[in-house]
Amino acid sequence: MSARSTKGQRVARATRGTRAPRLKPGVKREQIFEVAIEAFGRDGYEETKWADIATAVDIGSTALYHYFESKQHCLFEIMAKAVADFRERFDRITAARDDWTDALIAVLEDQFALTDQEVLRQRVLVAEIGRLAVKRPLPREEAARAGARTHVRDLEFAWGAFLARGMQQGVIPESDPRLLTRALLGLYNSVWHWYHPGGPLGLDEVRRFFMSRELALLGCSSELEERLAA
Fold first, then answer.
1. For residues 40 and 193, what is the distance between their CA atoms, to the nearest angstrom?
2. Which residues have a Cβ under 8 Å from the Cβ of 100 and sit 6 or more positions away?
3. What is the 3-state secondary structure (H, E, C) of the chain?
4. Rounded-to-integer distance, Cα 115 and Cα 38, Å
5. By C-alpha distance, which of 37, 51, 41, 46 is closest to 8?
6. Residue 35: which residues within 8 A CB-CB, separation 6 or more?
7. How far is it, in rounded angstroms, from Cα 80 to Cα 103?
8. Mean pLDDT over all residues of the chain?
9. Which percentage of the chain shows pLDDT scores above 70?
10. Backbone phi and psi for residue 137, each to the nearest 5 degrees, phi listed first
């Protein structure tokens, strides 16, 4: 049996027993998303065959093109949704807290409050983000790529504005908010190059380790780090 066949069967087993007949188009599209995230996040985007996704959701390979223009179109939609979700959570958390320090701690903690599916989605986003720089010839694929790239820029801008407020309030040292944002998000994103559900480290342990390093990178006071430890 070939490695391709084995992988296709593994993807199919991930959803076997959960499929409902005659799903509505929107439901089927979400099912494709879920299977694609699982496959891309565990096996890698390049290693996942588009036909394996079709098998897993019980449709023909050509039927996938009713929902997505290409495998890469599906990838861009996954990436766009991942960043948009993080922006929504960021806005909700920061808007609900008047104290900047409280908001910072809450946002950093929320970064690691992820389900296994969301962890896999983060792995996909971090591994394939370089693809957002290259324009695509297919219209829907290009629209998804451009949308995902816009979401990334908007999230960076929101973080930069938030960090600038912390600097104005004297909570963290003055520096370039844009560079500090990229350094902070770069540290955070490095987790998803190696962390995966079911690994030797629990996500809570990873959160504690990386949050203390994030606070140090921001130049926060030792009192704030002690507050995190408590």
1. 13
2. 165, 166, 169, 171
3. CCHHHHHHHHHHHHHCCCCCCCCCHHHHHHHHHHHHHHHHHHHCCCCCCHHHHHHHCCCCHHHHHHCCCCHHHHHHHHHHHHHHHHHHHHHHHHHCCCCHHHHHHHHHHHCCCCCHHHHHHHHHHHHHHHHHHCCCCCHHHHHHHHHHHHHHHHHHHHHHHHHHHHHHCCCCCCCCHHHHHHHHHHHHHHHHHCCCCCCCCCHHHHHHHHHHHHHHHHCCCHHHHHHHHC
4. 12
5. 51
6. 11, 14, 15, 53, 56, 57
7. 24
8. 89
9. 85
10. -80, -30
Residue-wise pLDDT for 127-175, tens only, equals: 999 999 999 999 999 999 999 999 999 999 999 999 999 999 999 999 9
114-127 per-residue burial string, b: 16 or more CB within 10 A, e: under 16: beeebbbbbbbbbb
Higher pLDDT, 218 or 20: 218
Per-residue pLDDT at 48 exceeds 50: yes
